[in-house]
Specification:
The protein has helices spanning 6-19, 35-43, 77-97, 154-174, 181-195, 207-210, 224-227, 230-239, 241-254, 258-268, 273-285; strands spanning 2-4, 21-22, 28-29, 31-33, 48-50, 54-57, 63-67, 111-116, 121-127, 137-142, 317-322, 327-332, 337-344, 350-358, 361-366, 377-384, 390-399, 407-409, 421-427, 432-438, 444-451, 457-462, 475-483, 486-494. It is of the alpha+beta class. Helix 5 packs across helix 8 (230-239).
């Protein structure tokens, strides 16, 4: 059973309560990994002791298991056998196949593994020091993975946790820097997908990212660092798993910012930060109902969706505070595609992306491409590449991409009127509106055209005169507005 000093016990209780969130089912989703908290505990000089009565060395000679067959921490022999086989499998994939260094054993030559009841954690890795290189650590796993706090339960919960925590063992053998713990959790969550790609436990944490896409990619709050594994997943998918490996090797050797190191390595194989950001943003947009088969994340249809809007600070304009690699997305209606302008509150490094989907085809238009692409759906995004945390405004200046397909006509004002009627209408893309006034006999009384220009809004007005320039008589008339395939009509009353 885990025994701790009173201050630490209180700290862990509050931490776990803070990090838990509600899943749609109503169950509590617990913190995925307690490793970072135990690193912090080590920095503060606290002591954690684990007291389990039984020991068993693995047949491979790599692991020493601490466990109990009775009481709160009891495990079954089957669970113990499974834990041994799964950890040996993690060793085979992460060390033998992927080339990462072996974990550093304790003085007795074993990596010590504790199987214990963890009320709201999947597991954690407890290093002997809070920072340094060549560190050994204890690995602590839940004793059954039946707790409702575990999003992935049973044997799959054990598998995904072992893959995650075993990579932490490797991390600490390479280098432990507590100022970059987000990167450790990115990496271990990424590794879950390399060892057990069919489990997809990371999906449960994605709302923490999609609800706050404007936050810095380095955000560390107990949930988002796991969801942010979708960035290294993107990078490894584009540039290869070796990029992640090389980034870790260089970080271990130099202690230089691991995220910037990762970007440097990716750049060396042809993927600049701008290109990666554009690819990342496009993948984030093409998720959930917007997923396109064969494009972006393999599991994109199971992802949440970004809160795409048709401008939140004006027509086809989006604005907000954006952190480092934070994303500001918006949707262009009806397949409109055109130039995108980004302005910021101060000097900063930004990139932007535009994408158009037409059926099962996605066209990605990087920064500076003003091509017009016909499509059924389009989106834009601005991505901050630095840590300045600025206010960003992004505006789409659309080009015509086919005829308008939708028209929205506001009520005339005034109505009734003694001579002048006004309307505002909005199209789903730039276009020309043909306006016609009919009398009740269906005869055209007046007709004229209005262009929306590069926008989508037009103002119409009729002064009560007919085609010949004469004043029309009192009565009921009908305005019919036509733009491409779209049309709208409205009755008005002229009073003389």
């Amino acid at each position: 059973m885990l025994t701790v000093k009173q201050p630490l016990h209180k700290y862990l209780f509050l931490l776990i309560a803070f990090m838990a969130v509600l899943r749609p089912s109503g169950d509590v989703l617990g913190a995925k990994c307690g490793t970072s908290e135990h690193i912090q505990i080590g920095k503060e000089g606290e002591h954690v002791s684990r007291d389990l009565p039984l020991l068993r060395a693995s047949q491979s000679g790599r692991f020493m298991f601490h466990y109990a067959l009775n009481g709160q921490d009891r495990v079954t022999e089957t669970f113990l056998d499974s834990a041994e086989a799964i950890l040996d499998h993690c060793w085979t994939i992460e060390v033998d196949s992927m080339g990462y260094p072996e974990p550093v054993p304790a003085v007795d030559g074993y990596v010590h593994v504790f199987l214990m009841d963890l009320p709201a954690l999947y597991g954690y890795t407890d290093p002997v020091a809070a920072s340094g290189i060549g560190l050994n650590a204890d690995l602590v796993l839940d004793n059954d993975y039946f707790n409702p706090a575990h999003a992935t339960r049973g044997i799959n919960g054990l598998r995904v946790t072992a893959a995650h925590e075993f990579f932490h063992l490797i991390h600490f053998a390479m280098r432990l820097n507590p100022f970059h713990l987000y990167f450790y959790e990115w990496s271990s969550t990424w590794m879950e997908e390399q060892v057990y790609p069919e489990i997809n436990d990371y999906l449960y944490y994605l709302p923490a990212f999609f609800d706050t896409p404007e936050f810095s990619i380095r955000t560390f709050n107990g949930l988002r660092e796991y969801a942010s594994a979708i960035l290294p997943l993107t990078i490894s998918d584009l540039a290869g798993d070796a990029v992640i490996h090389e980034a870790w090797v260089r970080f271990a050797a130099t202690n230089v910012d691991p995220f910037q190191t990762l970007l440097v390595v990716a750049n060396e194989v042809g993927y600049t930060p701008e290109v990666l950001a554009q690819e990342f943003a496009a993948r984030l947009i093409a998720t959930g109902r917007n997923a396109v088969s064969g494009f972006g994340f393999e599991d994109a249809r199971w992802f949440p969706e970004l809160g795409l809007t048709e401008g939140n600070c004006g027509d086809l304009s989006w604005c907000g505070m954006v952190g480092e690699w934070g994303i500001l997305p918006g949707v262009l209606p009806g397949g409109v595609q055109g130039r995108v302008e980004v302005t910021t509150s101060s000097t900063g490094l930004f990139t932007q992306v535009s994408m158009v989907r037409s059926g099962s085809t996605v066209s990605l238009l990087p920064q500076g491409d003003t091509s017009v692409v016909n499509g059924t759906w389009a989106a834009v995004a601005a991505i901050a590449l630095d840590a300045s945390g600025q206010a960003v405004t992004m505006k789409a200046i659309p080009e015509r991409a086919g005829d308008p397909a939708q028209i929205s006509l506001e009520s005339a004002w005034p109505n009734p009127s003694n001579g002048v009627f006004n309307w505002t209408l909005k199209l789903d893309r730039p276009g020309v509106v043909q306006a016609t006034i009919y009398n009740l006999l269906g005869q055209a009384v007046a007709t004229w055209d209005v262009s929306t220009g590069t926008g989508r809004t037009a103002r119409l007005s009729w002064d009560g005169q007919d085609i010949s320039g004469s004043a029309s008589s009192s009565g009921m008339y009908i305005l019919r507005a036509v733009a491409g395939k779209a049309s709208a009509a409205q009755r008005i009353i002229l009073i003389r």
